[in-house]
Amino acid sequence: MNEQYNSLLKLFSAKKISLVAVSKTKPVAEILNLYNEGQRDFGENKVQELQEKVNQLPQDIRWHLIGHLQKNKVKYVASFIHLIQSVDSLDLLIEINKHAQNNNRFISCLLQLHIAKEETKFGLNEVELHELLNTEMYRSLKNIQINGLMGMATNTNDTDVIRNEFKYLKHIFEDIKSKYFSRRNHFIELSMGMSSDYLIAIEEGATMVRIGSLLFGNR
Ligand SMILES: *Cc1c(COP(=O)(O)O)cnc(C)c1O
To answer: Which residue among 26, 67, 71, 199 is buried most deeply as judged by most CB within 10 Å?
Structure first.
């Protein structure tokens, strides 16, 4: 029994929040342990590592890609990926759509917003997000579905900074939902919160959290 896992599950299931277990750098045996406790959603940030793990683990795992995705790597995950959380450009979305078509399926995506102070974190800003959603090209993509937004807060101990970034992301989420997705019911996911800040993220409206080190130990 993984005590940490069970206490997180209790909290999340009461609030109907999805838990993505971030298994990057962790061996398949540890993933399998959590799988055997009932966990099905796992997140990886590198395509090659993901490919290697997929082949060694049960087929009913729902794999989430949470790290920056290069266009030339989309083809390696297109047949099986459950949710690409890190879409940060129209070009990438076009490529995902193409490979979804080739695989005769739809691929669900989240658009990643840059909300942190660090320059190094990937993602669109608010202006770019509107630009993308207003293009004819985006509207013509039939094999992708945007299920919501993802963001990472600044890596800081200042909880006010983190809270404000999550509030900002939630505000954008509601705005985008009402402007572009009001007649559809699939724009529902707000993926925010990691081991260090998931409690704040939940208070600010996360529907999905991505937790690694709290479940698997430090990397
Ligand atoms: C690594 C990672 C996480 C999980 O981080 P922890 O601090 O280990 O919980 C969440 N989201 C993204 C995008 C990550 O790269």
So the answer is: 26
pTM above threshold 0.85: yes
Amino acid 212 reads G
C-alpha 95 – ligand 1 centre gap (Å):
25
Residue for token pair 């990472």: 152
CA distance 208 to 199: 12
**103 is written with which tokens?**
């695989």
Contacts of 40 (CB under 8 A, 6+ apart): 60, 61, 62
In angstroms, the CA 105 to CA 80 distance is 10
Is residue 210 within 6 Å of ligand 1 at its C-beta?
yes
Give me 182's structure tokens. Answer: 């009001």
pLDDT in tens, 18-69: 999 999 999 999 999 999 999 999 999 999 999 999 999 999 999 999 999 9
